[in-house]
What does this fold into?
Amino acid sequence: MARTKSPNFEVQRSAILENAAQLFAQKSFPSASIAQLAELCGMSKPLLYHYYRDKSHLLFDIADTHLERLIAMVDEVAEQRLDTEAHLKALIARFMEEYATSRHHHMVLVQDVKFLEDEARRKVAEKERYVVDAFARLIAKLRPELPAEQVKPVTMTLFGMMNWTFTWFRADGPIDSAAMAEIVSQMFLHGVYSPGLPGIAPKQAETPHEHLHLPENGAA
It folds into this structure.
């Protein structure tokens, strides 16, 4: 006879998932154990297995729920009907905010998905492609002169900028996630000397004689 779910089943399951993401991120998926997770959750191993059948089930759920949040952000920003550059900047801002508040989930997604079985890994990869393709379409619209084979590498360069920020960025540091997102947006769209970067003054226009080295007082 199947065990009846308690009224707070989903709440407890969510708490276990949060603890698992923290444990996997800190110790890595192969090194973390169900016993360690049960201790972190303050419950017995048999009770933990009532919520999740094994470590792989937990790993998939961490990656899948994180990607579902990212997909929801992609769809929500698309519904705003922004112009292309504003659309891309809004996505960057939303993603950077999510990464800052879900560091452990994102770390597990980036580092540990390779330990999933083939079918589970395929499902995760499909959702990752949905997210990446949304960014790639915007980049292709912004830079239509880019050869098709360069759009994906350029897109993944942007993800490299965003994805690895979580390894050092702290929300309680000197700049918040919104300011960090603006830095990423400006650097990606306009380069490191972008006037939009904090502390970078707009470049002054050169006067026609600046590089002519004319003699003083107009002497010949």
In short: Residues 202-220 have pLDDT under 50 and may be disordered.
